[in-house]
Amino acid sequence: MRILAIFAVVSLAFPQFAAADAPRAEKMATAPVLAFGERNPSCLEWTDGCVVCLRGASGRSCSTPGIACQPTEIHCKQLGK
């Protein structure tokens, strides 16, 4: 029990060590969706079923994927004129 308490304190005090080798799940999940937007500049809204991205006057913005979401094929939901 004492070891668990010590581990908890250390991981809270130094979170960069606890997550240093963990990949950034958000970046890994959104990378293909972002690339789709770069390859299709006329698309104003696109999704993979988990992440929705919008292109507007202020640039591009994407939602955060859900924890257990299973992405599907990326497709454009709204084309620009």
Notes on the protein architecture:
- There is one protein chain.
- With 81 residues, this protein is of the alpha+beta class.
- The chain is built from 3 helices and 4 strands.
- It has helices at 2-13, 15-18, 25-39, and strands at residues 43-47, 52-56, 59-62, 75-79.
Provide tags for this entry.
81 residues; alpha+beta; four-stranded antiparallel sheet; 4 strands
Summarize the structure.
The protein is α+β, with helices and mostly antiparallel strands and 81 residues long. Helix content is 38%, strand content 23%. It has 3 helices and 4 strands, in the order αααββββ.
What is the strand tally?
Answer: 4
**Percentage of residues in DSSP E strands:** 15-25%
Distance between the termini: 63 Å
* Spatial strand arrangement across the major sheet: 3-2-1-4
Q: Determine Rg (CA atoms, Å).
A: 18 Å
Mean pLDDT: 77
Number of helices: 3
Helix percent band: 25-40%
Main β-sheet description: 4 strands, antiparallel
Structural topology:
Elements (H helix, E strand, L loop, with lengths): L1 H12 L1 H4 L6 H15 L3 E5 L4 E5 L2 E4 L12 E5 L2
Antiparallel strand pairs: 1-2, 1-4, 2-3
